[in-house]
Design brief:
Helix content: 25-40%
Number of domains: 3
Strand order of the largest sheet: 7-4-3-2-1-14-15
Radius of gyration: 27 Å
CATH superfamily of the largest domain: Metallo-dependent phosphatases
Order of helices and strands: EHEHEHEEEEEEHEHEEEEEEHEHEHHHHH
Structural class: alpha/beta
CATH topology of the largest domain: Purple Acid Phosphatase, chain A, domain 2
CATH class of the largest domain: Alpha Beta
CATH architecture of the largest domain: 4-Layer Sandwich
Shape: globular
Distance between the termini: 55 Å
Bound molecules: manganese (II) ion
Number of strands: 18
Number of helices: 12
C-alpha cells in the first residue's frame, strides 16, 4: 500500500510579530505556499500538529487565511486532520474555539484523546470530532492535543489504552499515526514538559509515525518521531533552524520499517529572512567607532543578500553586549537602528542593548563590587520599561531588596508585604531607597555580601 501525506505544524496564522501587519501576511503566505505544494504533490491527507492559529481570539482576516486553504483542500477531496495547540485552545470551561468552528463547517477533523478517571480512551468520530480517524482505508490517525505538564503521563496512558485494544479493533489498519502537540525532552534547552524518548518508547509498538508540533525546532528520531518545526519564524532565534519545513511523507507499507518505508522530504516555504548581529561594545572606545563598526557589518551583510523585494526585505535583530567603552549618554541607539534600516533595506529593526554602562565598568577592578554591577544592570533595564522609567533607581532598590530577601530566604508573605510597602512608598514619593530592613538582614546573615568582581569575565571577546 502506498500513500502520501503532509505533516505541518506551528503555522501561527494571525501573528502580527513586532506589531507589524506585514508579518501576519508572511505567516499566511508560508501556509498558502506549503498547502498549494501539497495539493500539487497529490497528498492523500494533511495533518496539522497544533498552533494553526497564533492565539485564541483571531480576527476576520486570519480566519479567512485559514478558511481559503482548508476549503481548497476540501475541494480537492483531501482530508485535513488537526489537533489543538496551546496557542489556540479555548479557555477552560469555555465551549468552542476557532478550530471547533472550522470542524463544524467540515473543513477539519479535530482529534482529541479523552481522559476520564485517569484512563485514556479514543472516542469514535462524531461531527468531525473524536479520538481517531481513518483518512483513507488502512491508515489510522490518533490525536492527543496539548496536555501541558501532563503530557508525559498522557502519552503513557495512551500507550496503555492502545495495549488494551482488542486485536479486531485494528483490523485492516496497515499504518498508524499518532499526533501530539509536544516534543521529546532534551531536543530544546528549556523545554521541561515533553516526554523523554524512553517515555515515548511505550508508543513504539502501536505507531508507525508520530506527528509532533509545539517545539519550533525541527527534529527527527528513529524514522518514527517527526517534528517539522515552525513554518515561519516566530522568534529571531528560530532563524538558525534552517530545516524548518512542512514534511511531505511518502509511505510504502510493503517495505521494511525505516527510511524506505517512510520517506520524508521537506517542503520549505519562502520565509522572510532574519539578519542577526551580535555586537561587542567593549571593542569601541567612542560612540562614533561603535556606529562605524555597525555600519561596516551591515554593509558587509547587505553585499551577501542580493536583490531584495518587498517579500525578502529582512527582519534585523541587533544585540549590543559587553561593557560600553564610553558614556552611556553618548550611545545613539536610534542612529544604529536607522543605519541598519537604510543599509539593509530592513522591513523591521530591533536593537537590544545589554551593554553594561561605563559608569560601572570604569571602577578599579579591585573595588569592583557585585552590587554596583547589579544595580547598574537593574537601573539600565528598568529605565527601558515604561512603568519604571520615571524612577529606575528606586525600582532597582526594590528589585535588589526583593532578591536579597528571597536569598535569605525570608518567608514569601514577608517579601510580599515589603514589596507592597515599597511600591506604596514610591507612589507616595516617600521611598528612601536603602538600607531597607531586608538589606540589613541579608548582610547580617552573610548572604550576598559584596564580592570582588572577577575582571576576567569582562574581557572583550568577539
Ligand atoms: Mn507553536
Amino acid at each position: 500500500m502506498q500513500f502520501r501525506f503532509l505533516h505541518v505544524s506551528d503555522v501561527h496564522l494571525g501573528f502580527r510579530q513586532y506589531n507589524e501587519s506585514f508579518r501576519a501576511s508572511d505567516f499566511a503566505q508560508a501556509f498558502r505556499d506549503v498547502i498549494d505544494r501539497a495539493i500539487a504533490a497529490k497528498v492523500d491527507f494533511v495533518i496539522i500538529g497544533g498552533d494553526l492559529f497564533h492565539k485564541r481570539a483571531i480576527d476576520a482576516q486570519t480566519l479567512d487565511q485559514a478558511f481559503r486553504r482548508l476549503e481548497l483542500l476540501k475541494h480537492h477531496g483531501i482530508p485535513c486532520i488537526a489537533i489543538e495547540g496551546n496557542h489556540e485552545m479555548a479557555y477552560y470551561g469555555e465551549e468552542g474555539s476557532w478550530l471547533g468552528f472550522l470542524r463544524a463547517r467540515g473543513l477539519i477533523t479535530l482529534l482529541q484523546t479523552d481522559f476520564a478517571e485517569g484512563v485514556a480512551s479514543f472516542a469514535p468520530l462524531r461531527n468531525g470530532r473524536g479520538g481517531w480517524f481513518d483518512p483513507m482505508p488502512g491508515v489510522r490517525v490518533y490525536g492527543l492535543g496539548y496536555k501541558g505538564a501532563g503530557t508525559p503521563a498522557a502519552v503513557e496512558m495512551c500507550a496503555l489504552a492502545l495495549d488494551a485494544l482488542p486485536p479486531d479493533a485494528r483490523e485492516g489498519v496497515a499504518f498508524t499515526i499518532f499526533a501530539a502537540h509536544t516534543g521529546v525532552l532534551g531536543e530544546l534547552p528549556g523545554d521541561a514538559l515533553s516526554p523523554t524518548l524512553h517515555q515515548w518508547m511505550a508508543m513504539r509498538p502501536h505507531t508507525d509515525y508520530v506527528a509532533l508540533g509545539h517545539i519550533h525546532k525541527p527534529f527527527e528520531k528513529d524514522d518514527w518521531l517527526y517534528n517539522p518545526g515552525s513554518l515561519e519564524t516566530c522568534a529571531a532565534n528560530e532563524w538558525a533552524w534552517n530545516d524548518r519545513a512542512a514534511l511531505l511523507v511518502e509511505v510504502d507499507t510493503d517495505k521494511a520499517p525505516g527510511p524506505e518505508r517512510t520517506r520524508v522530504t521537506r517542503i520549505k516555504p519562502e520565509r522572510r529572512p532574519f539578519a542577526r548581529f551580535q555586537i561587542k561594545t567593549d571593542l569601541h572606545g567612542d560612540a562614533e567607532a561603535l556606529e562605524t563598526a555597525c555600519t561596516e557589518k551591515f554593509t558587509q551583510r547587505r553585499a551577501e543578500m542580493g536583490v531584495l523585494t518587498d517579500d525578502t526585505k529582512p527582519m534585523v535583530d541587533i544585540i549590543l553586549d559587553g561593557v560600553l567603552g564610553f558614556e552611556q549618554a553618548l550611545l545613539n541607539l536610534h542612529a544604529i537602528e536607522e543605519s541598519a534600516r537604510s543599509i539593509l533595506e530592513a522591513a523591521h529593526v530591533q536593537v537590544k542593548n545589554f551593554a553594561i554602562p561605563k559608569s560601572g565598568a570604569r571602577i578599579d577592578p579591585d573595588h569592583y563590587v557585585r552590587e554596583d554591577v547589579e544595580r547598574g544592570v537593574f537601573v539600565d533595564l528598568l529605565a527601558k520599561v515604561t512603568q519604571f522609567a520615571d524612577n529606575p533607581d528606586e525600582w532597582a532598590s526594590v528589585a535588589i531588596t526583593v532578591k536579597n530577601m528571597a536569598n535569605v530566604p525570608e518567608p514569601p508573605e514577608r517579601i510580599v508585604d515589603e514589596l507592597a510597602t515599597m511600591t506604596q512608598a514610591i507612589a507616595d514619593g516617600t521611598f528612601n531607597g536603602h538600607p531597607s530592613p531586608a538589606d540589613l538582614t541579608a548582610e547580617e546573615t552573610g548572604v550576598n555580601v559584596a564580592r570582588v568582581y572577577a575582571p576576567t569575565s569582562i574581557t572583550p571577546a568577539e
